[in-house]
């Protein structure tokens, strides 16, 4: 189990925060095509969960997935290049924001399909453990995923076969514009009981609280326990998607947004450091991201002639139409 490390937690939430802010600038500049789902406000969850995992442990994430990839240890420069669609990106610019992966640090990928990441992670952890790997996994999903059949099937199989998966619900109160109270019967943590899984609810704005809850669950799972569920209560500080910056949907009262923003994981983690140390971290993160932006924008775009490369593991190329 990894112990408390306030410096590491602060560095991670600050890195994710500034990465996302830089990425939004690159969307506006037209360098990231199609926009992103910003993780702003939710950084404490990825930071806290991943701080309690080892490098070999596996994670899968969501459409709002940059924080998960970064917190698990992916290189921010190659991640940013991926978002910009460059060949120097983590996945040669072919995954983009919603399908970024870095198998080298156990990130099996962000995922655009709501509810899918839990099923992928459950299968992957099961397969690795059958081959003898002593690993656990964590999968992130939003409140909008908790009624998806695919996720509930993953709960069932993980519990039945005692697959050590931590199911982490990032409850930010909304699925796009749909409030959780209008969509979810019963409680989120309560769903775990139906499958005999332990469940905990935690303040997702406090990365140390998230790390503690995760570390305890991971210790139980490494000792042979089955899957567990954590509901992390959080708030999305920005838009569902950057496209919302243009359409200005009116679904969250300004007072609610102000209240949500008042509990900022970057400030909560930062208050645990000496101000001079905090300033040093901020400067180091800024320098790293300056270099990351330069690296991302310097990379070439993929050659369209290679569009069908890497589609088949066997090396077969796709048919060129006509049957
Ligand atoms: C299976 C599926 N249904 C619908 C969508 C469209 N969609 C994309 S994001 C989203 C909302 C997801 O909300 P939530 O899971 O709470 O995550 P959040 O966006 O709040 O992080 C929806 C409905 C999708 N991508 N996949």
TrEMBL record:
SUPFAM superfamilies, per the entry: Thiamin diphosphate-binding fold (THDP-binding)
UniProt keyword terms in alphabetical order: Oxidoreductase, Thiamine pyrophosphate
InterPro entries: DH_E1, PDH_E1_Alpha_Subunit, THDP-binding
Required cofactor(s): thiamine diphosphate
Signal peptide location: none
Dehydrogenase E1 component domain location: 12-296
Domain of life, source organism: Bacteria
PANTHER family per the UniProt record, alphabetical: PYRUVATE DEHYDROGENASE E1 COMPONENT SUBUNIT ALPHA (PTHR11516:SF60), PYRUVATE DEHYDROGENASE E1 COMPONENT, ALPHA SUBUNIT BACTERIAL AND ORGANELLAR (PTHR11516)
Name listed for the protein in its UniProt record: Thiamine pyrophosphate-dependent dehydrogenase E1 component subunit alpha
């Amino acid at each position: 189990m990894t112990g408390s490390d306030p410096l590491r937690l602060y560095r991670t939430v600050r890195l994710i925060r500034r990465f996302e802010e830089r990425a939004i600038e690159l969307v506006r500049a037209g360098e990231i095509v199609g926009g992103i789902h910003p993780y702003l406000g939710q950084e404490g969850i990825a930071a806290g969960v991943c701080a309690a995992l080892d490098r070999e442990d596996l994670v899968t994430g969501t459409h709002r997935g940059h924080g998960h990839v970064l917190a698990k240890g992916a290189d921010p420069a190659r991640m940013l290049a991926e978002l910009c669609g460059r060949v120097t990106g983590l996945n040669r610019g072919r995954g983009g924001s919603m399908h970024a992966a870095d198998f080298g640090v156990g990130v099996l990928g962000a995922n655009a399909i709501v509810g899918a990441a839990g099923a992928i992670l459950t299968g992957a952890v099961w397969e690795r453990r059958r081959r003898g790997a002593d690993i656990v996994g964590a999968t992130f999903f939003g409140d909008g995923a908790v009624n998806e059949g695919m996720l509930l099937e993953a709960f069932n199989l993980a519990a039945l076969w005692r697959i050590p998966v931590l199911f982490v619900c990032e409850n930010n109160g909304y699925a796009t514009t749909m409030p959780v109270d209008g969509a979810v019967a019963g409680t989120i943590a309560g769903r775990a009981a139906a499958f005999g899984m332990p469940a905990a609810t935690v303040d997702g704005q406090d990365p140390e609280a998230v790390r503690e809850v995760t570390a305890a669950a991971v210790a139980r799972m490494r000792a042979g326990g089955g899957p567990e569920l954590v509901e992390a209560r959080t708030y999305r500080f920005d838009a569902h998607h950057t496209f919302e910056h243009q359409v200005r949907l009116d679904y969250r009262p300004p007072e609610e947004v102000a209240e949500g923003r008042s509990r900022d994981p970057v400030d909560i983690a930062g208050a645990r450091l000496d101000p001079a140390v905090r300033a040093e971290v901020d400067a180091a993160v800024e320098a790293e991201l300056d270099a990351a932006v330069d690296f991302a924008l310097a990379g070439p775009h993929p050659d369209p002639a290679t569009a069908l490369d890497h589609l088949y593991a066997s090396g077969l190329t796709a048919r060129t139409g006509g049957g």
